[in-house]
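pls design
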């Protein structure tokens, strides 16, 4: 399938590792001009080299913290300055700490709000004028399966990922007339550093080994295994492509069938 991404410009935040990097690589392989943003200059430069080696295309790396309004504006501006356009925005940010309701004070709630909801608001706000001017655009918000089914001991993520899905629905209704399609993609148990860390924390809480935690999760997944970042990225790229002409306002889960919610 032709994803119709040749010459299109894509900005991926938290693009130096994990799901963001895998998505950036897949976009570049499909012919897109890819800009990645992240806080870590070291990880950014390594990811840039990896994207270029995998795709044979130049990529741009921008040091930016999505918690900061000025950094968000700078990341979007870097994409537009490079190619004169911005066609696709992939919003992504590291997950907040795990834990239950009584473990978090106001500071923790406000930090998660800024990182996982306001970062999306700001990125979309900066990107929309360029997409509206072009008469088309794609926005893909990376969230979690918790938008459909809350996850135990991840209350901060549960609340703010659901907020991003509500934003996705609202944006899809408001900007469909401008040719802008907006969706969210929720990963299940995908092999990333974040999932390894969550498994380790779960093992510590229960007095289990990490392998026991993995086995318990895999028993809940019809496909019987964790997914790979590359598998996840294929869904992100389709929804963020111009081959996608009629899917908007949706939450697509990439979870091997783990979530049973309708």
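designed seq:
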């Amino acid at each position: 399938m032709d994803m119709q991404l040749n010459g299109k410009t894509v900005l991926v935040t938290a693009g130096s590792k994990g799901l963001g990097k895998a998505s950036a690589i897949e976009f570049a392989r499909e012919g897109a001009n890819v800009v990645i943003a992240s806080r870590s200059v070291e990880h950014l430069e390594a990811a840039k080299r990896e994207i270029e080696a995998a795709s044979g295309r130049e990529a741009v790396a921008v040091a930016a913290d999505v918690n900061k309004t000025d950094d968000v504006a700078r990341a979007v501006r870097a994409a537009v300055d490079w190619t004169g356009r911005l066609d696709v925005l992939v919003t992504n940010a590291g997950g907040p700490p795990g834990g239950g309701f009584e473990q978090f004070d106001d500071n923790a709630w406000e930090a998660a709000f800024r990182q996982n909801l306001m970062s999306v608001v700001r990125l979309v706000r900066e990107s929309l004028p360029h997409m509206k001017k072009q008469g088309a655009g794609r926005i893909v918000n990376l969230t979690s399966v918790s938008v459909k089914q809350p996850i135990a001991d991840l209350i901060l993520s549960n609340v703010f990922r659901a907020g991003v899905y509500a934003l996705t629905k609202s944006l899809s209704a408001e900007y469909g007339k401008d040719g802008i399609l907006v969706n969210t993609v929720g990963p299940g148990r995908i092999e990333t550093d974040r999932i390894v860390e969550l498994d380790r924390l779960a093992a510590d809480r229960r007095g289990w080994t990490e392998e026991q935690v993995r086995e318990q999760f895999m028993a809940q997944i019809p496909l019987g295994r964790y997914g790979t970042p590359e598998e996840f990225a294929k869904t992100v790229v389709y929804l963020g492509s111009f081959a996608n002409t009629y899917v908007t306002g949706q939450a697509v889960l990439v979870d091997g069938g783990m979530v049973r919610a309708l």
